[in-house]
Amino acid sequence: MCGRFNVIDNPGLQDLLRDLGIDLSLPPAINIAPTEQVSLVRAAPGAARGVDAARWWLTPSWAPAVDQKYSMFNARAESLGSSRAFRGPFRRQRGLVPMSSFIEWRTENGVKQPWQISNAAGALAVAALWDVWEKGDAPLLSCTLVTTAAAPAFTAWHKRMPVMLAADERDRWLDNAQAVEVDDPLFRPALKEDLYLCPVDRAINNARNKDAALMQPVGEEVVLAA
Predict the structure, then answer these.
(1) Domain 4-224, CATH class in plain words
(2) Is 113 helix (H, G, I), strand (E, B) or coil?
(3) 214 phi and psi, to 5 degrees?
(4) What is the largest CA-CA distance in the chain?
(5) Which run of H or of E encompasses 102?
(6) Residues 45-85: pLDDT tens digits?
(7) Which phi and psi (to 5°) does residue 121 adopt?
(8) Are 140 and 133 in contact (CB under 8 A)?
(9) Rounded Cα–Cα distance for residues 40 and 17 (Å)
(10) Residues with Cβ within 8 Å of residue 64, at least 6 apart in sequence
(11) Are 60 and 41 in contact (CB under 8 A)?
(12) Rounded Cα–Cα distance for residues 125 and 173 (Å)
């Protein structure tokens, strides 16, 4: 599950983009929620790799309308090859969404406590799929984030986690000329690097709250070792 994330223009995120061959800075965005605009790294057909603004909630090209009838902001890795909505993009429209951290919740003392999750660099490359819907007044580029079963150490926070691509997996995932299979090791339920988790203000539960102060820890940090 990945339902909120943050983008901070920090050195780690800048290094990540440079490693992907992209020379630009992403605009900061706090507490990004599904249906909002996100920065999508992709190589569109006939174009060089770049960053495009995409709606975070996949609308398949064949859909009759743009709606939220089905939860399409996350795609389960296990069903990428069989889902009508995801199997086409999985074959030829893979991308990634750079983020500095994401938010997950767990119940503590009867209250849902949000936790901010990142790596040492504050730069995560999360696997995504995209599609273009062209039945409206203008083409709509949209995307979904790919999730997999949680690594054992992460299950105390959630049973699912985003597919965080390691440095040696990113180019292969973005190369849509080459197939990726549903049993590929990049989907493995394991930590590929240490993760740093800290509780944050419960005001972040409201997606309308976009204050960067919400990212400040309100409790002790937890480190999950890879």
Answers:
(1) alpha beta
(2) strand
(3) -65, -15
(4) 53
(5) strand 101-108
(6) 777 899 999 999 999 999 999 998 888 999 999 999 999 99
(7) -85, -10
(8) yes
(9) 11
(10) 135
(11) no
(12) 11
